[in-house]
Design goal:
Keywords: Cell membrane, Membrane, Transmembrane, Transmembrane helix, Transport. This protein has 321 residues and is mainly alpha-helical. 76% of the residues lie in helices and 0% in strands. The chain is globular and about 65 Å long.
């Protein structure tokens, strides 16, 4: 177990250093170290462009990974993720509405709008589930229906407002382009608050995994635990989407890979999902910047290239679910 953690952390650190080196201007490690501490010729490239993107990629990936692990723990469906339950679509719809209808809105309003959209869909899902007593596994299907409805709304906005389509598409495909230090407090303050709460819920989610009757007989307040875990998941996913747009499949991939490495214990699963999610987004963002500079691909395109085939594999594996 300790060797696995050592490999993951070492890989993340090595990739972090590499992400500072690669780009339109290829810099050496000595240039980066001098610039980071003393400023100079490459001050803007390192301190105001690559360094904030590095920390944002780690934060966004960790948020999506933890969110996916919580969603799968509550719904008890291995195919569930923030993308599939509609949280990302909700954040995307409200953000697209802002970008197309109010293109001159202040920059700070975009994360706020995305947060409102994601949280609203999450609350709607909880209300529907409680009102009609949906089994946890069927919540995923309800989220897919909500996501499809909101996706059609996004398409409508893009068709009606073609002038703003480029800005909206960059955000919808998932990218850290144009993000900087001003977005840092959103994701890291969210992680500082919601990660400890998620870990507090960990052993309760382990018991919930035994089944509703077993959890209740062991003294777990089932509805309360499920609601708190879903709220944490929705908040983390909304924060991540509000900063980087809809980076797909990270919330699905990270928990599955963490489960292969660390098992089903939620304390290890949540922390493992955070590190693996950070590694996935950091890898995607680094490749997006370095594959063909100065052209920059959206990071969400690269995660989809990996995630879509894996999702098909999971559908085949869990076809009887």
């Amino acid at each position: 177990m300790s060797r696995t953690w050592l490999v993951l952390i070492s890989t993340t650190l090595a990739l972090s250093v590499f992400s500072l080196v690669v780009g339109v201007a290829d810099l050496s490690l000595s240039q980066i170290s001098v610039t980071a501490f003393k400023g100079g010729e490459y001050d803007f490239v390192v301190n105001h462009y690559r360094l904030p993107r590095l920390f944002l990629a780690i934060g966004v990936g960790a948020g999506l990974g933890i969110s996916g692990a919580l969603v799968q723990g509550v719904i008890r469906n291995p195919l569930a993720s923030p993308d599939l339950i509609g949280v990302s679509a909700g954040a995307g719809f409200v953000a697209t509405l802002l970008l197309t209808v109010f293109p001159n809105a202040p920059v700070w309003m975009l994360p706020v709008a995305a947060m409102i959209g994601g949280v609203s869909v999450g609350l709607l899902l909880i209300i529907i589930a409680r009102s009609v007593q949906l089994p946890p596994a069927r919540m995923a299907l309800t989220g897919i229906a909500i996501s499809a409805f909101l996706a059609s709304g996004i398409d409508y906005l893009l068709v009606v407002h073609p002038i703003e389509i480029n800005t909206a598409m960059i955000w919808l495909t998932g990218s850290l382009w144009g993000r900087g230090w001003e977005q840092m407090p959103y994701i890291w303050m969210g992680l500082a608050i919601l990660l400890p709460l998620s870990l507090w819920l960990a052993w309760r989610l382990d018991i919930v995994g035994l089944g509703d009757e077993s959890a209740i007989s062991l003294g777990v307040e089932l509805d309360k635990v499920q609601a708190m875990a879903l709220i944490c998941a929705v908040m983390l996913a909304s924060l991540s989407v509000s900063i980087a747009g809809t980076i797909s499949f990270v919330g699905l991939l990270a928990p599955h890979l963490a489960r292969l490495l660390f098992g089903h214990n939620h304390k290890a699963l949540l922390t493992g999902s955070a590190v693996i999610g950070a590694l996935l987004v950091l890898t995607a963002d680094t490749i997006a910047r370095g594959i063909s500079p100065p052209i920059e691909l959206p990071a969400g395109v690269l995660t989809s290239v990996i995630g879509a085939p894996y999702f098909i594999f999971l559908l085949k594996r869990y076809k009887g679910w």
